[in-house]
Amino acid sequence: MLSPEKTPIAEIVVEQIEVTVGQTGGRRTVWQDGPGFITLEVLAREYPDLTANFSISVDASGKRPAAIAASLEFLASMHEPNIIALSQAFGPRNFSTSGSSALAERDRDYVRMAKLARALESIQDHVSTRLLFPKSFTGDQAIAILNAARTLTGNPITADWNEFRVVRDTDLDTIDVLFEPGDEADLRLVRDIEIEIDDRKLVVGKEMALMRGVVKEFSSDLAVFGPSRENPKATLVRFDGDVDDGRVHARAIHDESARTPE
């Protein structure tokens, strides 16, 4: 698929599955991409004088994301003003264009599916469980998968966060100062990165949420933190350490204002 400036923006490799030759020398070949989403009928008298007809049938469920991502990206880009072009798979890319994008408008379903497939392909590099493309997915499930892929590849995410409670364990407590309501603290919260595929929840890694918080409540067995008014966002980064899900570390922002236990 070429842009209007003739720059390649998506590419698939198709293999010949059928060929017929006419009595006057014309040649008809039928080609198909790897997952079988796209069937291409090519009518030719002499290369590169070609006529191409496309048929599309997509069933991505249960397929390996890496095997279908390129085809979905091709379909996502198959809209005006982009141009379908053909080239031999070997050697320099000398494209013969059909002058058509096949579809007048971008199909948003293909765009979403292509992004999801690439995200799952990326997550697969970090887990031993085999990941397959879901039969169906909600918007929230897709966002969780996209965010998981982004975090696991080392790209931080900025997100809103809400007030949360921490039950203090005296044996494992990582809150090493005595706070009072209204104090500010730098918070680090370790969480499992969880995605859901076809009603199956999978932990694919860990992330650390870095937050500036305000102490709402504080006692010997409980701490409650909420977002700082000046800095209410959390930064989510990949975490590779050996720390349990839900562990919180809190540090006073100004050491001189912290009330350390005697």
Quickly describe the structure.
The chain has 262 residues and is α+β, with helices and mostly antiparallel strands. The chain is built from 3 helices and 13 strands.
Relevant terms:
four-stranded antiparallel beta sheet, 36% strand, alpha+beta, 262 residues, 3 helices, single chain, 13 strands, disordered C terminus, seven-stranded antiparallel beta sheet
The helix tally amounts to 3
Q: What general outline do the C-alpha atoms trace?
A: elongated
Unreliable parts:
256-262
Question: What's the helix-strand series?
Answer: EEEEHEEHHEEEEEEE
User: Helix- and strand-based class?
Assistant: alpha+beta
Please characterize this protein's 3D structure.
This protein has 262 residues and is of the alpha+beta class. It is built from 3 helices and 13 strands. It has helices at residues 65-76, 108-124, 139-152; strands at residues 14-21, 27-33, 38-46, 49-56, 85-86, 96-97, 157-160, 164-167, 184-197, 200-218, 222-227, 233-238, 248-252. Strands 7, 8, 9, 10, 11, 12 and 13 form a 7-stranded antiparallel sheet that branches. Helix 1 (65-76) runs antiparallel to helix 2 and helix 2 (108-124) crosses helix 3 (139-152). It is elongated. The termini are far apart. Residues 256-262 have low confidence and may be disordered.
